[in-house]
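Possible regression after last week's pipeline update?

I re-ran a chain I had predicted before the update to compare outputs. Posting the input and the new output here so someone can diff against the archived version. Not blocking, just want to make sure nothing changed silently.
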Amino acid sequence: MMYIFRENIDMKPFDFSLLSQHDQMDLIYTTGVYLGKYKFGRVVKVLYQLDYFYIEIAYRKYRSHIESVRCFESTEPLDPYLERISIEELISC
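New output (post-update):
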């Protein structure tokens, strides 16, 4: 596994993209931070943060068939996730 000495290395999106899909998923599930998910048609999109970037996994069949994996550093693609966060409970306190 490429990331065995990960504690000494800050992963960048390019480095992540060089990993096999199996190693990407292993890294995400063991060290990534889950941020949210939403359904877009028949696709479920799940968002994680790893180091200083985000990873979005699109599943055609949730957790069984990966349609795509996308890495990004910009916060713009976070909008669909942020729109689903309700702050009403925080405001009414």
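Follow-up from reviewer: compared with the archived run. Residues 1-6 have pLDDT under 50 and may be disordered. Marking as no regression found.
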